[in-house]
Amino acid sequence: MNAQMEAVKKKMSVLGKSAVTSREYRAALIKHLREAVPFDGACFTAVDPQTLLSTGAVTEEGIEAIHHSLFENEYLREDFNAYDLLVKADDPVATLHGATAGHLERSARYRNVLLPAGFGDELRAAIMYQGACWGYLTLFRSHTQPLFREDEREFISSLVQVIAFNLRKRSLALPFEESIGMEEEPGILILSDQLTILSSNVVADQWLSLLQKWECIDFPTLPRPVRAVCSRALSVTSTAVELASLAKVCIRIPEGPYLTIRASRLSGTSTTVHLIVWFEPAKPSDMLPLISEAYGLSDREKQILAHIVRGLSTKEIAHSLHISAYTVQDHLKSIFIKTGVTSRRELNWHLFSRFSVHRDK
Questions:
Q1: Does the reported pTM lie above 0.85?
Q2: Domain 3-170 is of which CATH architecture?
Q3: 233, 247 Cβ separation under 8 angstroms
Q4: How far apart are the first and last CA of the chain?
């Protein structure tokens, strides 16, 4: 590894310890990476580790113009280096020229999106930590520039876990100012299959405006989380109804608590496809998987935490999970250590005050 790459690693170590938001961290990381691995465009998307859908992206200007086409290709087309496959790969970092054996034109994404925009090779990284994915990093090179080298791909691969660790940590960060209140009424948005807004209520308009402000995009560009759940909903066929539940993202916005965004196809007598999108305060069933992943809880610890939020006693939890009360207590001690509390009472207060987790009514 050359001196420049080592210098960038040191800068990233300092960045990881700094008190910046997820978006600020991703923007700064792109800047540092460019010093060691030259590229002509970048997109760094944070994702919900449960559904692998975007919760917001930092996208450079040259990529913003083709971002909608990249989304469509990712969710509605089969192509090389699909992110849902990189998540499952032994090495979650790959280049387009490597995947196509040097024949970029084999990729529809290259032919239809990248090349017309002046781009050539592409490097993709699924940002993985302890089996969970926290983001997607994509670097692009102009078609006039050299392909990504293997040592550059290996360098990005060596950074994946530390980047994911820092994204995970920032998913639990509290807002700097007092949180805004959640509207009780759901936001409702109706869109065409081309993701054109057809109608909306006032609450949906408020959420759209807030998300656009957060992502630094202008109206009428759809925020990435909305685009992601819609694209997932459009990809669900009548033979894959069970996937419809995955057209959902749980997101912690900087100015408030957790928000759930869901999308679904609308059916009717018309052959025209319409989509409905809901914006709602997240339920414990939406929040707890994300919070549990962020704290690095084991599968059994996640189950116990869910039971604690429901108000079950140690004896009731033991009976429900078919384990002894002593085993429950051992898992509780581990949960306390990972979440930084010392008792069940403090854990419940922590979940309520920090994340607004309360029992479902």
A1: no
A2: 2-Layer Sandwich (3.30)
A3: yes
A4: 56
